[in-house]
Amino acid sequence: MAETPKGVTAGKLAINVQKRFTRAQEKVLQKLGKAEETRDAAFEEMVANFNKQMTEGTKLQKDLKTYLIAVKTMHDASRRLQDCLADMYEPEWFGKEEIDSLAEDTDTLWLDYHQNISDTSLVSMDTYLTQFPDIKARIAKRDRKMVDFDSARHHFTSLQKGKKKDEAKIAKAEEELGRAQRIFEELNVELQDELPALWDNRVGVYVNTFQGLAGQQEKFHKEMSKLSQNLNDIMTKLEEQRELNEEANHSESASSAPKSAVTNGSDGELPPGFLYKVKAIHDYAATDGDELELKMGDVVLVLAFDSPDEQDDGWLLGVKEPHWVQNKDISAKGVFPENFTQKV
User: Fold this and answer.
1) Rounded to an integer, what distance in angstroms lies between the CA atom of residue 302 and that of residue 272?
2) CA 5 to CA 256: how far, in whole Å?
3) Each residue of 32-44: b (16+ CB within 10 Å) or e?
4) Sheet containing 334-337, strands listed edge to edge, beginning at the edge strand earlier in sequence
């Protein structure tokens, strides 16, 4: 035997069963044309709009979630690709630190993009859709109360038209009719105010959702474009480094070549203390007044230090070849890191 739900007495259960039976009976009579049915074409149009609006909103919410899943999938693929590049990138190659930093920045950008879409567009849609279940339930309740109102009116009319009038029953039926009408009209008026407002509100919701999405997409692609350009620049310089290394490997003027065999395009005239030539394979920004700033491809004439004690390990002294060729002085000489250059 089925148990009665907690909080529901046998009396209440019986009343509910009776209500359902009375409503079903009234609907049958209405379909047979034996009872008058309350119809409101304007309200029915509102309900049709409501159902359409709820269906469209639910689909948009679903598609936004699908889009976020795709963003997460692209993020995972991007992370694996960046990790692969960072793992295979050899320490001595140009821009190793920049490559590692680029991988971190790309990962952060994807994370922010996913989170921002979720916090703006998806949350906006979720909030928008939370109001539909309550309104849908009240529409269903309004429909039930409308049937109760029709049934009470039908019962009252039947008693009035009866051959034997029972005034007590008629008075009670009239009272029940008034109560049913008040309950129905109260729900009806509320929904007639709410449904058009909700229908008009959909435009603002869609605007906010897609403006937010478009804004995040624009920001993401702008930042991703910068990172892509940085990666392209690093790859370009890596290729230049490879070409310089190839030239150095095929050059006859190796580090063991005698000084007399090295020329600089200045009719063989060399600066005092000249040792050999080098070519910059990385940019170097000078951080002190006695340092020489380098750009990739610069040719530098390496000079001997006045005193061996002045030379720090890993550092060379020199003057850029164009300056020497043009001015024939070494006043612009400076020190620079040896591992930023390649002998030529």
Assistant:
1) 10
2) 99
3) eeebeeeeeeebe
4) 334-337, 315-320, 299-303, 274-280, 341-343
Joined together, the tokens standing for residue 127 give 């909030």
Inter-residue long-range contacts of 17-22, CB under 8 Å, 24+ positions, other chains counted: 19/148, 22/148, 22/151
**DSSP character at residue 262:** -
Question: CA-CA distance, 65 to 71, in Å (whole number)?
Answer: 10
Residues 273 and 303 sit within 8 Å (Cβ to Cβ): yes
d(CA 84, CA 81): 5
Distance between CA atoms of 156 and 176, rounded to whole angstroms?
A: 9
Report the share of the chain in percent with pLDDT over 90: 61
Residues whose CB is less than 8 angstroms from the CB of residue 143 and which lie 6 or more positions away in sequence, other chains included: none
Residue with tokens 């020329």: 263
Q: Confirm whether pTM is higher than 0.90.
A: no
Number of Cβ within a 10 Å radius of residue 54:
17
Residue 65 clears pLDDT 60, i.e. is over it: yes
The stretch 61-68 carries a mean pLDDT of: 96
Answer yes or no: are the C-beta atoms of 290 and 315 closer than 8 Å: no
